Every structure is written in C-alpha cells, then in structure tokens.
C-alpha cells in the first residue's frame, strides 16, 4: 500500500507538470477584456459595450449575451477604455454612481475583468444617491446590498463548513476544497444540460456524488497519507497539487467558457419591502439555512456529531475511549464533500459556471473560517456571514473592484484583537 501511495503521488505530480505547461501557454488565446452584466442577480442581455484604446482609437463594439457575458480580444497589451452604453440597458436600470466608463489594463496573455455595478433606476423626481436628500435611496440600496451579502455569506458558509470540519478533525488545511465546490457545480451542469435532467434532481445527484468522492478521497488517498505519518505541512502542499490537478481536469473537460444551468437562469424579480430579488435567491437562501441548521443540530445532538467534536478536541483521547477515529474522519470527509458540492450548485445559480469558480471563492472561504475560528463549525458560519456582508455592503462607498478589501480588512482587525477568531478558543503555544 505504501508503494501504491508513493506511485500515485508521483503520477499526480507528473500529471500536474504536464498539464501546467499547456495551461500557461494557452492564455495567449485569451488576451483581452471580459465581464458579466447583472441586475439584482439576473443577466442583462443586449447591452452595448464599446472598447477603444487609451488614445480613443476604436477597437471593437460588442453586446452582452443571454448570460450577460461579453468579451473583447485585443492584439496588444496596454491600457484601454471600456464604455457601457447606458441607453442599451433595461429601462428600469442604471449604472451605480453614474460612471459607465472603465479604464482597465490588459497584460500580455491575460484577460482583464471589467465590472459595472447595475442597480434599479430611481423613480422620476426621486433623488438618487449622492444628491441632497437622497437618504431614502441610500437606505434602500443598503437593504438590497445587505440581502445580497447574506446570500453570498450563506454560500461561503456552506463551503467553509466542510473545510472547517476537515481542519478540526485532521488538522489539514485543504487547498483543494475550492475544487470540490467547482466539482459540484460542474456535475450538476453535466446532469442538467448534458443529460437533460431538471436542475433539482441533477443537483441532488451531484450532491450525492460529491459526498461519495469525499469518502473515497479520504479512504484511498488522505487516509493512506495519515497512516504513513505524513506531516501536516506536507499534506497541505500535496493539497495544492491536488487543487491544480483538478482545476486543469475541469479545464480539459468543461472548457474555459462560462455556462449556465438550463433552468432558473432568468427570472423576474419580486419585491419584498425595499428588497428586490429573483425567487430562486429566496429559495436558495432557505435551502442553505436549512442545511446549516441540520448540520449544526447533528453536531450537537447525534452520536456521530459528538464523536466528531471529541476527535477535534483530542484524537488520541477519543481513540482510547473507543471512538473509531478513522471512521469519524471519513464521515466528515463525506459530509464536507457533499456540502461543498451544494455550495458550488448554489454559487452556479447566483452566477455563471466556470472552471475557476472554486478558486475564485477559496480566499473568501479561508477568510470566513479564519475569522470565525479555525476548526469550529459555528465559527465558520458567523465568519462567512461577516465576510459576505462586508463584501456587498462596502460597495456603497468603494468601487466594486475593491469590494473584497473591506472583508479582508475586517479579518485583519479582528485577528489583531482576537487571534483565535470570533468563536475560536485560546491555545497555549510553546
């Protein structure tokens, strides 16, 4: 078995090396600008975007597609001017802040993402944000962004919960957890679009498949490394290799384009007080809350949950008291894989699918886990909600391109005051 693990690790490293070459040679085909236009979570189709050089020389004019996505390839790297035609937007929408011009820089072999934050247009005669007396509009926007922040925070919490449970029971900081999120979204897409199943049964099958993969991932790989006495640092580095491997496999089979599910892509928004959102957002938040509550109750009330908490506190003492530590860890991996797959599906509902979606959210997952307290399930929930709220609400004062800065700043400030996180426990070092 030891030779099998060494051979598999060597094969994994060699495959990563082979895949990394084409992956870095390929971005030359994607040198340009891209973006996605959404209004309250719904894609905006038919909006016109004009791209010129910094000196005003026309490059290309495109329109957003049914998923709200657009892209422009350019021949030379440098600074460009991107203008969104406000008259091509839906009648009830406008660009937040009124600035419909961006000046991004394209670097050689890379695509730069251009963000335009859209919001519902104010009623005639109603003051807009920034004008005198615009307090009511400001608070309406704050309520809308708070709702969107809670939605994002719950998605991050689902992904962070599995990562926190795995860390708590094994001590492993799993950098491949973001790819488990991507896998859930892609599996649901394959069953939904590829096989023609409705999204709901496709999502259920994808969640089960994510849990099965989590089980065998620990049984055949991580569990073997633990038995060999592989150190935590070495396993963390191996997880980075696993993440790269899975990411490039997704690129080969899924492709570098963005896709959407066959159902629930475009829904008319419904008004609930100052909040306007698609029905799928309310349903998704209900499902996310329900899953988090069920997992929380299971950790507190069931024998397996109590055993998991005992293993997290002291694996050696738990084993001496008769708890099968390997079995508990395997259950945690199964649960973590299933929850990560569900988080990927929910993320795919709120935005388009792409092979890097897990990588893009991984930093926020780590921020939520660290802010709440490493290894604590409820801390991951609290930390993720704080991160999601600050990301969305901060766009009231900062450009959307910098919206993650506020959440990371809060993370730094909290850890300076409380290094163990919001719900973490103090530990003696040395």
From TrEMBL:
Keywords: Amino-acid transport, Cell inner membrane, Cell membrane, Membrane, Signal, Transmembrane, Transmembrane helix, Transport
Record flagged with keyword Transport: yes
Protein name: Branched-chain amino acid transport system permease protein
Membrane-traversing stretches: 150-168, 197-217, 229-254, 282-300, 331-349, 361-391
Major subcellular location class: membrane
Keyword Iron included in the entry's annotation: no
An individual GO BP term: carbohydrate metabolic process
Membrane topology: Multi-pass membrane protein
Signal peptide: 1-25
CDD domains on file: TM_PBP1_LivH_like (cd06582)
PANTHER family linked to this entry: BRANCHED-CHAIN AMINO ACID TRANSPORT SYSTEM PERMEASE PROTEIN LIVH, HIGH-AFFINITY BRANCHED-CHAIN AMINO ACID TRANSPORT SYSTEM PERMEASE PROTEIN LIVH
Superkingdom assignment: Bacteria
GO cellular component: plasma membrane
Annotated compartments: Cell membrane
The family this protein is said to belong to: Belongs to the binding-protein-dependent transport system permease family. LivHM subfamily.
UniProt-recorded Gene Ontology molecular function terms: L-isoleucine transmembrane transporter activity; L-leucine transmembrane transporter activity; L-phenylalanine transmembrane transporter activity; L-valine transmembrane transporter activity
């Amino acid at each position: 078995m030891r030779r099998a693990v060494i051979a598999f690790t060597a094969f994994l490293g060699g495959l990563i090396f082979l895949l990394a070459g084409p992956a870095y040679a390929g971005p030359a085909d994607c040198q340009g600008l891209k973006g996605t236009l959404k209004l309250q979570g719904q894609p905006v189709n038919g909006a016109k975007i004009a791209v010129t050089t910094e000196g005003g020389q026309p490059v290309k004019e495109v329109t957003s597609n049914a998923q709200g996505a657009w892209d422009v390839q350019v021949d030379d790297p440098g600074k460009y001017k991107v203008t969104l035609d406000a008259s091509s937007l839906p009648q009830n929408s406008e660009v937040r802040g009124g600035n419909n011009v961006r000046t991004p820089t394209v670097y050689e072999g890379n695509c730069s993402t251009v963000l335009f934050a859209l919001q519902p247009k104010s009623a005639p005669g109603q003051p807009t944000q920034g004008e005198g007396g615009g307090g009511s509009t400001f608070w309406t926007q704050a309520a809308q962004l708070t709702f969107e922040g809670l939605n994002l925070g719950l998605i991050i919490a689902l992904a962070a919960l599995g990562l926190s449970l795995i860390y708590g029971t094994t001590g492993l900081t799993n950098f491949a957890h973001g790819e488990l999120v991507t896998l859930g979204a892609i599996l649901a897409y394959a069953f939904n679009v590829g096989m023609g199943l409705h999204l709901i049964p496709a999502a259920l099958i994808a969640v089960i498949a994510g849990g099965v993969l989590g089980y065998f991932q620990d049984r055949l790989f991580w569990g073997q490394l633990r038995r060999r006495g592989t150190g935590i640092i070495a396993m963390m580095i191996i997880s980075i290799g696993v993440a790269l491997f899975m990411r490039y496999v997704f690129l080969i089979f899924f492709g570098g384009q963005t896709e959407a599910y066959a159902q629930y892509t475009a829904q008319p928004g419904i008004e609930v007080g100052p909040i306007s959102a698609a029905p799928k957002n309310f349903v998704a938040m209900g499902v996310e809350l329900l899953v988090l509550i069920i997992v929380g109750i299971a950790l507190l009330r069931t024998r397996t949950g109590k055993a998991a908490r005992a293993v997290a506190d002291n694996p050696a003492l738990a084993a001496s008291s008769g708890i099968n530590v390997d079995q508990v860890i395997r259950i945690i991996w199964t649960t973590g894989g299933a929850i990560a797959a569900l988080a990927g599906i929910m993320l795919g509902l709120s935005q388009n699918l792409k092979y890097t979606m897990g990588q893009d959210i991984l930093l926020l997952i780590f921020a939520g886990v660290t802010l709440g307290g490493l290894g604590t399930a409820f801390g991951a929930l609290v930390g993720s909600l704080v991160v999601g709220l600050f990301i969305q609400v901060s766009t009231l004062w900062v450009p959307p391109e910098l919206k993650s800065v506020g959440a990371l700043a809060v993370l730094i400030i909290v850890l300076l005051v409380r290094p163990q996180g919001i719900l973490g426990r103090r530990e003696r070092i040395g």
